[in-house]
Amino acid sequence: MSDLNTFRQETRAWLNENCPASCQGDDNILPDILWGGRRQKIAEPDVQRWMDRLVAQGWTIPAWPKEYGGGGLSDDESKVLAEEMSAIGTHSPLYSFGISMLGPALLEYATEEQKREHLPRIASGEIRWCQGYSEPGSGSDLASLQCKAVKDGDDYVVTGQKVWTSTADVSDWIFCLVRTDSDAPKHEGISFLLIDMESEGVSARPIVLLSGASPFCETFFDSVRVPIANRVHEENKGWSVAKALLLHERTMLAGGPGRASTGDQKRTLLQVARDSMNAPTGPLPDKAVRAEIAQTEMDQMCYAATLQKVQDAAKAGKGMGPEGSMFKLYLSELGQRSADLRQRLNGADGLIWDGDEFHPEAKESTREWLYSRASTILGGTSEIQLNIITKRVLGLPE
Amino acid sequence: MTLILNEEQELLRDSAKSFVDDQWQLNQLRANRASPKSGTIDAKLWQQMVELGWAAIPFPEEFGGLGLGYAELGIVMEEAGRKLLISPLLSSVVLSGSAIELAGNNDQKTEHLAKICDGSGLYAMAYQETSRHDPENVHAALTKSDGGYQLSGHKQLVINGGSANHLVVVCRSSGDAGDRDGLSLVLVNSSAVGVSIANNLLLDSTPSANITFRDVPISPEDILGKIGNAAEVLDEVYARAAIALSADMLGGIQSAFDMTLEYLKVREQFGAKIGTFQGLKHRAGRWFCEVELSRAIVLKALRSIDSGSSNLARVSNACKARCTATYQLSGKEGIQMHGGIGVTDEHDIGLYFKRARVTEILLGDTSFHTDQFATASSY
Predict the structure, then answer these.
(1) In the CATH hierarchy, which fold is given to the domain comprising B125-228?
(2) Does residue A359 sit in the same domain as residue A292?
(3) What's the pTM?
(4) So what CATH class is B232-376?
(5) Which residues of B touch A297 (CB under 8 A)?
């Protein structure tokens, strides 16, 4: 315990010394968020400094072993670091699929050589990763994927198309599920490949959504040569890696441990309602809207308690299992309801797509409302989450 | 505040569970309907619960309590609720006990909390006067008379009112119905002159009473707290009671869910287990999420009482609103998924459907708590 206290003192001193003032504050919001990669735009100087110091310390991902670019901290030490960072209102500026999804899967399944090659570049933000899972013909039925990898010498030759590859147009590498055996049952002919986006034959094209421009892309593979050494885990055993990774994705989407709040709305739902009803104080004149806001806030309170309960269980050594699906399901639907109410309360302003005169927040909230329809589809639809809950948590027969 | 049970709490849960399983049958609810004495509590069963220390859980040791908290009382109430056990936990321990603990002076606490804890006294709280829960809508009048006061008024939905030997009565010493000022709390002996009690059996076999007070003499020693000044204490009492009742509801919710889930796994139609049908499966999945959300908010709310949270009112509103909605869902989906057998009196699922409605009306339904939540949030 006294070791931990020493660590706390040292950490506090280090943060005091190294965290720029502009990266601290009550709002816990940094001037900039970094996604890393070769095409990372030039960061705000303080954020870059903060990032460089964290990387040198291995603290962009403190719990990973030092040899893989992490901080080599124990669980207790990681917790102390998180507490000390939160106490001064800061966090690591680096967010990436590499940290939240691929990294944990590599730690579990990759060879030593693969770990040493890829993990440090994730931790330092040098390489930005994207995910190649869905295909035009394989959405909810992911395991039916057809993107083919055929062995040729020391390489696989990959041909096919991926879709919903977030940020593919600005990423350096892609982790991909490919079919390596077309005759086997669908789950048993899939392999997990790491592919350099600069390889000959890879191209990506952004997708426009209802809400306008989006980070999603279509990615095409035209006879792309990928070294066999880039396969993670055994051939045709890629589905195990995929499942482990999907669990991390759901945890992330559910705002699980380690996720920072991003993009907080400027006005609360209540403020939007007050503005729209011209009722700055006192009881809201529209009683039905008042009840809808209260319902949303009570639901948020219940969700927060549910999340806390799982986190408390995790701290006591009981990990989050398939019930992660419940968090993804509930949070996406709650967010959707709340975005819908907000957009509705914006009324006439919310209808304006673009123009000269309307509430500055309405434009953003309209796009968020449209985008929110995607939240119950991406990362496994609500219906897929229900399939998982009923099979793996409730044990209902198939 | 951590939302998982510690080792002692798990032991308490296990012991409560085995007591309820051993000593209580759901059939008792059916038997109560036929019995002319159904308006009263099973004193022998209650005495056993008292001996286990359940009545003493939340009270300070100096007044005969165990010095534990609502986190612990909630565990016991959840286990009781799992089998729809009829007991005075809510009426005597939570409602009356809280009112005495929060408003009473040292002498009152010494006398009455000790009686609640050791079971020598059975208490009920008479607060409701209108069909809907409406805490400030109190007409029952406390007026001055020679050397003291007298009480006149009419109360309904006094849970266990027919078995209680002491009543904690919410009344009005000044102002009009609806005012927060002027609310008072008094202790009344239920055998006092002028108290008349009509016993009712509620639709879930809970004993309830309507009580009329006609010029009942009240001595100054039986006034709890400062006269006319009970509103704040009552806020806390109702918040605690709504949360404790939610813990009881949670037990029932979990039972109805478990019972139905089991049925989905064994019942066959069209040559398949009905649990294979996605039309039922997904509803069960959504129901499960609601149960988990209810459990989490109950755990949080119970601990918010113990920590003296300044946010207790809002948490209790969210808790009771959520558990009410989930219990309704559980009763309705439970019956629907059981099909024909679900609407028979022979099957237990309907007993949960009935309890869901009683606990919904008690201490305010979802729309009441949604409204209160908005008020407490200043909109």
Answers:
(1) Butyryl-CoA Dehydrogenase, subunit A; domain 2 (2.40.110)
(2) yes
(3) 0.88
(4) mainly alpha
(5) 318, 373, 377
